[in-house]
């Protein structure tokens, strides 16, 4: 079958809840993907940072196959021999005492919200049903009904009410707005250290540190959604480390299993995550041995291939080079590590047409929020590949 035939089937039989570029990927390796006609492209999206380790990483493939032949699912009704090692290795890599594994990012966010409420009632002494959680405008934390309750994107929320009570939305990047919103019933503040889906919005220096201090001062949990920014993407293990900040609760997902399998987790120390009692939360697939084995290999790749350092160095180079491209359309180039946003001027006619043009030149990017092109290749990219891409990016950023 060719590209047009695949697309026709997809349009006919699938719900239209996405607007993908018309490239049908049939194979991938490292930073490269191939379409149904055999054309080769550089992946500059990495499945929204779920592929930090690159496509089809051989070491993760081996872990997947080996584990798939042994045991894939026990449910948490029984124990398995991969989960304990995953817990231990995740704790050693992140510095948090404990974790709670889920599958999708949204599930891990929901888990963190439940944890914050439980902590508020059991530790802080907030009256039952009264806990409040503060989040930021422009956020993206997932697609469940509770999470879209506090989305500020009309498309994500308008047709899906009624919503979940207990959330307050304040401006992003404004610590004073958070302090003004804190009450004795505030359980937590949940922020993305950089808003990825919001358009690669980097808050001004000192913001996360100020939020951390406010949370400590008012006895409120600081929860960092590092699903997109974590695991090396921004040139640190976690993006909050750029400000020397340690959140009380960290939410990870996406690259946690290297793009092979949905694995997410909530990280915290024992006084917080130890609050969950048997039966209070769970997931049939969360913590399954296949996911745990794959995630262990994915974490090992991040460590053994120095992907955090690589992201810092190559990200700096890529961003510098992008910023030097003269273009009538570009308003700003910003980001950290290999999470880079190129914001176009309002009169540029939207980022989509630039992504379409980039595709023709063999580079896959996706627009975010109309005016921003995100460049977030797998962290295994090298300088030669960036240098290969730059002239094409330059051409596209100078098209009429
Ligand atoms: C992708 C993302 C999520 C949701 O993850 P899913 O696996 O799609 O549910 C949540 N928060 C952030 C910051 C994300 O980038």
Could you explain how this protein is built, in words?
This protein is α/β, with parallel strands linked by helices and 400 residues long. The protein is 37% helix and 17% strand. α3 runs antiparallel to α11, α4 (83-94) packs parallel to α11 and α12 (307-324) runs parallel beside α14. The longest helix is centred in the first third of the chain and has 20 residues, at 105-124. Bound molecules: pyridoxal-5'-phosphate. Pyridoxal-5'-phosphate binds at residues 48, 104-106, 109, 140-142, 192, 196-197, 225, 227-228, 253.
Please provide a brief summary of the model:
This protein is an alpha/beta fold and 400 residues long. The chain is built from 14 helices and 15 strands. The mean pLDDT is 98.
CATH topology of the largest domain: Aspartate Aminotransferase, domain 2
Report the biggest beta sheet as strand number plus sense, adding barrel if it closes. Answer: 7 strands, mixed
Total number of domains = 2
Mean pLDDT level: 98
Q: Could you give the order of strands across the largest sheet? A: 4-10-9-8-7-5-6
Estimated radius of gyration: 21 Å
Question: Count of DSSP helices?
Answer: 14
Oligomer: single chain
The CATH superfamily label of the largest domain reads: Type I PLP-dependent aspartate aminotransferase-like (Major domain)
Report the span from N to C terminus. Answer: 34 Å
The total strand number stands at 15
Given the C-alpha coordinates, what overall shape results? globular
Amount of beta strand:
15-25%
User: Roughly what percent helix?
Assistant: 25-40%
Spans of at least 5 consecutive residues whose pLDDT stays below 50 are: none
N-to-C SSE string, H for helix and E for strand: HEEEHHHEHEHHEHEHEEEHHHEEHEEEH
CATH architecture of the largest domain: 3-Layer(aba) Sandwich
